[in-house]
From TrEMBL:
Protein name: Ca2+-transporting ATPase
NCBIfam families in alphabetical order: ATPase_P-type (TIGR01494)
Subcellular location: Endomembrane system
Record family assignment: Belongs to the cation transport ATPase (P-type) (TC 3.A.3) family. Type IIA subfamily.
GO cellular component: a single term: membrane
Domain Cation-transporting P-type ATPase N-terminal: start-end pairs: 2-76
Main localization, broad class: membrane
Keywords noted in UniProt: ATP-binding, Ion transport, Magnesium, Membrane, Nucleotide-binding, Phosphoprotein, Translocase, Transmembrane, Transmembrane helix, Transport
Pfam families membership: Cation_ATPase, Cation_ATPase_C, Cation_ATPase_N, E1-E2_ATPase
Organism: Sediminibacillus halophilus
Coiled-coil regions listed in the entry: none
Transmembrane segments: 56-74, 80-97, 244-264, 270-296, 686-708, 714-735, 763-782, 788-806, 826-845, 857-878
Record's catalysed reaction(s): Ca(2+)(in) + ATP + H2O = Ca(2+)(out) + ADP + phosphate + H(+)
Domain of life: Bacteria
Length: 881
């Protein structure tokens, strides 16, 4: 027997699961251990040894190793071994950096891995999809990706988009009844859900019958495209730049070698020096450090509750100039409480806070509970998916807070689960943000049928023919106006409004969706408050200072939206609120003409969001767009930074996004932007540091050769400098804190090159000075003691290292070195201190003196070194450039 031929009870029995309670946690754990995780077979991991060896595959490093080998064979053991060791240490550093980046990327992947909604020990919980086992009872709702193969046990208007498996992009309706047929292809198994396919509408429950490679998707897993390596635009740009720098470094090195040979230096000596210089000057470590800086930044973002799904978003975040944010849940708490209810002719005020069910209904300060009010709340409870559950001793809502609010209000009227137990749902037309309404067809215990529709008042009014005003009667235009006025009054107080209507249906009949939602009888309108999140007002103000415009997008009534936007100080006095209906009538051009002055989009559907993104982009903006539903995905994808909600978001929205907000909070977007700006600045900082250091190294050699001097630095020294500068200090710059004014600058233009804002000038000017002061140290010492080349080289070596270690502090700001407190970045202080200590060891430790051709220096020498090495930094500290 196939799963689709079995009845649901038979399936459950076969798989040993209770359809009410699901599996126990213990049983699930046993099964997971026995059958393995619910994953498709992974790509093969590259072995660590290979990753390590990869560090040495660089052409110049190979030439250096070969040259060292030759010099070793010629008898220069110490030099050869020292160079080998330095190259090896460099390799280790590269290896660890790569591992670190790899690990944090893997962690990221895990954090953004999909979740499944399963019932364990009688409770619905969200678990990582990989922990789903055969027999698990599972819940699927519109927007979810199916985590395993499932035999359906319940379905409410459930439709699946199965193109991932079958190639067919039209949604397929699903049902529960067994299929009494022989061999069926997956696309015909209408009571089965398959791993990797997408729920596009409705909801359902089912039992997992296959996981991992034992799924229909597992059978074709070998056909699946392998995950691509993610490279960000910046990494790409740097890789390109790296190639150019290699050519420049090689040409300059060649130049140094040729002049050296021309000036009479032995060819062999110049060759080794040249290769060492090339290895030192080529910024081969740059892409790895960029990845490390990006991933470290990403780690910091995780602490702030923002998960980056695409590394490229980190860079784009720094350029964001508009944030289009959902209102409900992102700017507000999404904790709704019904405060007012209007039934034609009567106003009621509802007391009680939050989800506390203590409260009562007042009309003109008199506690009341008329029949019509009670029916409205009863119907609101029937047309409802949420449930009230105890969380940590407090009552909370499982499901949509809007619906939860109605349940809480109904409790205040004495309506409980028992009250509604005798009603059965025959059919449901689910809520979505496009329709702005939901409808259920109900049958009571006497077989009477009626339907209930609840939704946005304007949407319902258009489908209303009757009202109840003491008794049921036709709605006149005066009634409609009164209701609209009531809605406007509620909305003006920032209340979200939901109307409830009913319609009786002949028993036994199941009319189509259209007739169910036609000629309704309107019972009334509820108004619920959803307080703004505390931190959002500050975050919006901070964005404003940072040149970023915040735009509210909501399905709510324009007046509700306006009231909340004003409360959040998002809407300036002359700012405009645009409604979905107006938006529909505008072309993209017309919209982009006015969009700069629009701050709130109300009563919009997800389709409008795409138009909004495009209009802003047309104006040259870099747009961040939030979303949570299936229909939000196209806009999320089209925006420059797609943002989805970790809690309330659907899988589809998450997959389309590049940033996931774990707490669904607007303020988190602001933190992520701040971090994004900082990461980019930190990358610029260490590019500046590394390249200026390299320029200094090449120039000192070049100048010395041009002046017919001996080599100011020997190969081991050059390599050592490279090791120390490329290592800890550069990494520490990647960990630098943002500058105070990072959120007071305009967004960075996405067109801006790496060297813009004077970075190129800084690299060359500082590099030039570092080279010059090193040369001066060398020449001074050499002139004093022409016989003691070792002394002069030690002086040059110490000055070069010190100049770089001082210059690193200058790299922390685009402004003067004095603008920042050096003690603020303790990593950097530590890195510089340990590099200095290493320098002292190399200078004063006897055995290493042999290796590095160094010697003891006197206090006088140190005074000169300190004075010279401070020049490149201090001199520019007083200028603006
Ligand atoms: P955003 O999250 O973008 O701010 P929203 O939550 O304000 O959007 P929707 O959820 O699309 O927007 O709601 C739009 C309107 O639909 C609401 O103003 C309300 O009148 C109605 N509505 C919301 N939720 C429900 C529901 N569960 N059932 C019936 N109607 C609803």
């Amino acid at each position: 027997m196939k799963w689709y031929q079995l009845k649901t009870e038979e399936t459950a029995q076969k798989l040993g699961v209770d359809l009410e309670k699901g599996l126990t946690n213990q049983e699930a754990e046993n099964r997971r251990r026995k059958m393995g995780a619910n994953v498709l077979e992974d790509e093969k991991q590259t072995s660590l040894l290979l990753v390590f060896l990869k560090q040495f595959q660089d052409f110049m490093v190979l030439v250096l190793l070969a040259a060292t080998l030759v010099s070793g064979l010629l008898g220069e053991y110490i030099d050869a071994i020292a160079i080998m060791i330095i190259v090896l240490i460099n390799g280790f550093i590269g290896f660890f950096q790569e591992q670190r980046a790899e690990k944090s990327l893997a962690k990221l992947k895990e954090l953004s891995a999909p979740l499944a909604h399963v019932k364990r020990d009688g409770e619905w919980v969200k678990i990582p999809s990989k922990d789903v086992v055969v027999g698990d009872l599972i819940k699927i709702a519109s927007g979810d990706r199916v985590p395993a193969d499932v035999r359906l046990t319940k379905a409410g208007s459930l439709e699946l988009e199965e193109s991932a498996l079958t190639g067919e992009s039209l949604p397929v309706a699903k049902m529960v009844a067994p299929l009494d047929q022989g061999q069926l292809e997956p696309q015909d198994q209408h009571n089965m859900l398959f791993m990797g396919t997408l729920a596009s509408r409705g909801s359902g429950e089912g039992v997992v019958v296959g996981t991992g490679m034992n799924t229909a998707m597992g059978q074709i897993a070998s056909l699946l495209v392998k995950t691509e390596q993610m490279t960000t635009p910046l990494e790409k740009k740097l890789a390109e730049l790296g190639k150019l720098l290699i050519v420049i470094a090689l040409l300059l090195t060649l130049f140094v070698v040729l002049i050296g040979v021309y000036q009479g230096h032995p060819l062999y000596q110049m060759f080794l020096a040249g290769v060492s210089l090339a290895v030192a000057a080529i910024p081969e470590g740059l892409p790895a450090i960029v990845t490390v800086a990006l991933s470290l930044g990403v780690q910091r973002m995780i602490k702030r509750k923002a998960i980056v799904r695409k590394l490229s978003a980190v860079e784009t975040l720094g350029s964001a100039s508009v944030i289009c944010s959902d209102k409900t849940g992102t700017m507000t708490e999404n904790q709704m409480t019904v405060k007012e209810i209007f039934t034609p002719g009567n106003w009621y005020h509802v007391t009680g806070e939050g989800y506390d069910t203590n409260g009562a209904f007042y009309e003109d300060n008199r506690e009341v509970l008329p029949d019509q009010l009670r029916s409205l709340l009863l119907y609101g409870t029937l047309c409802n998916h949420a449930s009230l559950i105890k969380k940590k001793g407090k009552l909370g809502v499982d499901g949509d807070p809007t619906e939860g609010a109605i349940l809480v209000a109904a409790r205040k009227a004495g309506i409980t689960d028992e009250t509604v137990a005798s009603f059965k749902i025959i059919k449901e037309v689910p809520f979505d943000s496009d329709r702005k309404r939901m409808t259920v067809l109900i049958e009571d215990d006497k077989g009477n049928r009626f339907s209930i529709t609840k939704g946005a008042p304007d949407v319902l009014l258009a489908r209303t023919a009757f009202i109840v005003d003491g008794q049921r009667r036709a709605m006149k235009s005066a009634d409609q106006m009164k209701i609209e006025q009531a809605v406007a009054r509620m909305a003006g107080k920032a209340l979200r409004t939901i109307a409830i209507g009913v319609k009786s249906v002949p028993s036994g009949q199941t009319p189509d969706d259209f007739s169910l939602e036609k000629d309704l009888t309107l019972l009334g309108v509820t108004g619920m408050i959803d307080p703004p999140r505390k931190e959002v007002r500050g975050a919006i103000a901070e964005c404003q200072q940072a040149g970023i415009k915040t735009v509210m997008i909501t399905g709510d009534h324009a007046l509700t939206a306006r009231a909340i936007a004003q409360d959040l100080r998002l809407l300036p006095a002359n700012g405009q609120v645009l409604e979905g209906s107006q938006l529909s009538n505008m072309t993209e051009e017309q919209l982009s003409d006015v969009i700069e002055n629009v701050y709130v989009f109300a009563r919009v559907t997800p389709e409008h969001k795409l138009k909004i993104v495009k209009a802003f982009q047309k104006k040259g903006h870099v747009v961040a767009m939030t979303g949570d539903g299936v229909n939000d995905a196209p806009a999320i994808k089209a925006s420059d930074i797609g943002i989805s909600m970790g809690n309330s978001g659907t899988d589809v929205a998450k997959e389309a996004s590049s940033l996931v907000l774990l707490d669904d909070n607007f303020a988190t977007i602001k933190s992520a932007i701040k971090e994004g700006r900082n990461i980019y600045e930190n990358i610029r900082k260490f590019i500046r540091y590394l390249l200026a250091s390299n320029v200094g190294e090449i120039l000192v050699m070049l100048f010395a050769m041009l002046l017919a001097l001996p080599l100011p630095l020997i190969p081991v020294q050059i390599l050592w400098v490279n090791l120390v500068t490329d290592g800890l200090p550069a990494m520490a710059l990647g960990l630098d804190q943002p500058e105070q004014d990072v959120m007071r600058r305009k967004p960075r233009s996405p067109k801006e090159g790496i060297f813009s804002r004077g970075l190129g000038f800084k690299i060359i000017s500082r590099g030039l000075l570092i080279g010059l002061v090193t040369l001066v140290a060398f020449m001074t010492a050499y002139q004093d003691n022409p016989d003691n080349l070792r002394y002069a080289q030690t002086m040059a070596f110490a000055t070069l290292v010190m100049a770089q270690l001082i210059h690193v502090f200058d790299c922390r700001s685009d402004r003067s070195v004095f603008s920042r407190n050096p003690l603020q970045n303790l990593y950097l202080v530590g890195a510089v201190a340990s590099s200095m200590l290493l320098l002292l060891v190399v200078l004063y430790f006897d055995p290493l003196q042999e290796v590095f051709h160094t010697m003891d220096l006197s206090l006088k020498d140190w005074l000169l070194i300190t004075a010279l090495s401070a020049i490149p930094t201090v001199m520019f500290g007083f200028s603006k450039k």
